[in-house]
Amino acid sequence: MGPLVPDIISSELSLIIALLIGIAFGFLLEQAGFSSAKKLVGLFYGYDFTVLRVFFTAGITTMVGIIIFDHFHLIDLNIIYINPLYIWPAIVGGLIMGLGFVVGGYCPGTSICAAAIGKKDAMFFIIGAAIGVFIFIEGYPIFEGLFNSGFYGSPQLSDTFGLPNAVFAFLFILIAISAFAFAMKIELKVGGKVMSNTSQKYLITLAVVAFVIGAAEIFVPTHEEHIEKINSITDFSNYSFDEITSDELAVRLMYNDKSMRFIDVRSEAEFKEFALPNALLANYNNFIDRRWEDIFRVKGQVTVIYAEDEATEKRAVLAAEDVGFKNILILKGGLKTFRENILNFEMPAGPIEKSMHDTYRFRQTASLKLPKIIEDAKPKVVKKKKTKRVLGGC
Amino acid sequence: MQNNNYMNPFLAGILLGLLLLLTIFITGRGLGASGAVKSAVVQIEKTVAPAHVENSTFFQEYFTTHGDNPLKSFLVFEVIGALIGAFVSGSISNRLKFDLEKGSKINTKTRIAAAIAGGALFGFGAQLGRGCTSGAALTGMGVFSTGGILTMFAIFGGAYAFAYFFRKLWLN
């Protein structure tokens, strides 16, 4: 699912989307009152808390949305842009921005909104911002060292502190609730009235959602933990699997049945030596990867997972089912049986049971024809396309 | 003192948060603003001093990560949209007016100088900190980015720390 760019929406279309998003962004900032420098800096002098309210409410709303999307696998957090962590430039740059805020009265986004409604001071602020950027670009060799210092990748709070993001969403909601209460207190003290009432219901709902998801993620085992368990199973009698027999597979291969998708869960070396037509090599521990989504979920397709032995096939099916994939068959007896029964079939010596007569004749034909069919449709090892993170930031 | 027809800040916050969420869901990235200023500066330098641009490490890195045409970028279009959206909002709420907003204790020249200086500081800081209030602080908070949230605390912490020294610009 998400994000839709770049896989689902082209980059050309994304510029139009950018324009539409921008219109909504500018409209909301202006409606909120962010087109007034006095209103913005009011936060830092204690006479107007609009920025606190808008900013915090927006932040925690997005946070809760993200944890819901993430929890139900509606968005892939490995692809979305996470601002990288460069400790020193983040702190120094942030402090300089804070200074610029109280001196200039705006931040870049709000200055654009203010300029759009005719604020001349905002227009000068934008000119100033361009000068600031110019100084940075031209002085880049001087600032480069600081700019690249203290790099720790692109961690989320969950990576940095080892707790689910939902826990931090919950904490931020608590901070927001206290900050809003504090702002109301000051407003009462200074002006005798509260400027705008908090929607307690909304905040409490957010807090409950964050709490529940946080608790679920701490106490309910993750996919990785399931995989670990699946890999230790030796007795599969409690599970049921749909199977395809060697003979049925042989028939389908001979009639070139295209509705079957083969997933090979053996090693790369084994795969290179022999693989079923157009099979895909897979490590079933990684079925959670986004690319498998498109492979398993094709309408009207039957997926067959095969390995040398049935136990490996069964583990792979359980792993796939844990991700939510369905309609998966295993090859009965594994490739081992397929080889014995079909590819290397030899007519048994001695008298043949009458009921097996046709079967044996079929197997003999198959053993002559199939090796070529399989060899002709031999799949190549597809190098995994690394899904790239979206480029973002300012 | 001010028009009282602004949107309720909590409602504005909820809508802004949902917009950010939608943006992340569709594009995989959040909102931003300062990046568009950078694109404009890069384009101007490229047009005015092409030879200089070719010899600079900054531009080499910029063009490899951002492509050759700085104006054909997500943030530039988003900011053009923001200008339109804010203009529409201002006209609906009767706030369109050529005006200079300043504290009562300072004159126009001081306000203009402070606006330019503040803008320059913000523009510079946003480059160093890899994003401004929109791109680093708000979006960073929304996606739980440790880096973005650190920048957010630095921005607001810095503003509070320096506010006292510039109180004459704003307070009566």
What can be said about this structure in brief?
The complex is a heterodimer of chains A (394) and B (172). Chain A is mainly alpha-helical and 394 residues long. Chain A is built from 17 helices and 5 strands.
Task: Explain what you see.
The complex is a heterodimer of chains A (394) and B (172). Chain A has 17 helices and five strands. Chain A has 394 residues and is mainly alpha-helical. Chain A has a five-stranded parallel beta sheet with strand order 1-5-4-2-3. Chain A is elongated. The two termini of chain A are 25 Å apart. In chain A, helix 3 packs antiparallel against helix 9, helix 5 packs antiparallel against helix 6 and helix 11 runs antiparallel to helix 15 (310-323). In chain A, helix 15 links the parallel strand 4 (302-306) and strand 5. In chain A, 42% of the residues are buried. The mean pLDDT of chain A is 90. The model of chain B has no long low-confidence stretch (mean pLDDT 93).
Classify the secondary structure makeup of chain A into a structural class.
Answer: mainly alpha
**Through-space gap between termini of chain A:** 25 Å
The backbone outline of chain B, from C-alpha atoms, is globular
- Strand segment count of chain A: 5
C-alpha Rg of chain B, in Å?
Answer: 18 Å
Rounded average pLDDT of chain B: 93
Strand content of chain B: under 5%
Topology pattern of chain A, helix = H, strand = E = HHHHHHHHHHHEHEHEHEHEHH
Structural class of the secondary structure composition of chain B? Answer: mainly alpha
N-to-C span of chain B:
12 Å
- Most extensive interface, chain pair and sizes: A-B, 139 and 126 residues
SSE series of chain B: HHHHHHHHH
Radius of gyration of chain A (Å): 30 Å
